[in-house]
Amino acid sequence: MESEYIYHFTTQTEWELAKINGSYKPAGYDQEGFIHCSVEKQIAGVLDRFYKGQTGLIKLKIEKAKVSRPVLFELAADLDELFPHIYGTLNLDSVVEVINIG
């Protein structure tokens, strides 16, 4: 059964900016065209591959049903795994928990 939650990693600074702006768009959004997310079982691998050694990170727990933009599960060919991508800015009311991960 597919989880109702997806997760995104960002910095506390970017999250504070999102609260000021009323929506969230990560720094790399304009190049990528979507917001990278993961499901719970992918979290450890994502942290290890992309965020090793970084500090000041938070994890956004996002309720998929509340996301106002399309959420598509797309293949990461190098991992042969589907990852959720949000195509558009993230509406803040879809974030149900903000977890400090250091």
If you had to describe this structure to a student in words, what would you say it looks like?
The chain contains 3 helices and 8 strands, in the order E-H-E-H-E-H-E-E-E-E-E. The mean pLDDT is 94. The protein has 102 residues and is an alpha+beta fold. The protein has one domain: ADP-ribosylation fold (Alpha-Beta Barrel), CATH 3.20.170.20.
Radius of gyration, in angstroms, nearest whole number: 13 Å
CATH superfamily: Protein of unknown function DUF952
Query: Which structural class best describes the helix and strand composition?
Result: alpha+beta
Question: What is the overall shape?
Answer: globular
CATH architecture field: Alpha-Beta Barrel
Quick tags:
102 residues; alpha+beta; ADP-ribosylation fold; three-stranded antiparallel beta sheet; globular
Can you describe this structure in just a few lines?
By secondary structure, the chain is an alpha+beta fold. The protein has helices at 12-21, 29-32, 43-50; strands at residues 5-11, 23-24, 35-36, 57-63, 71-76, 81-86, 90-91, 95-100. Strand 5 and strand 6 (81-86) form a beta hairpin.
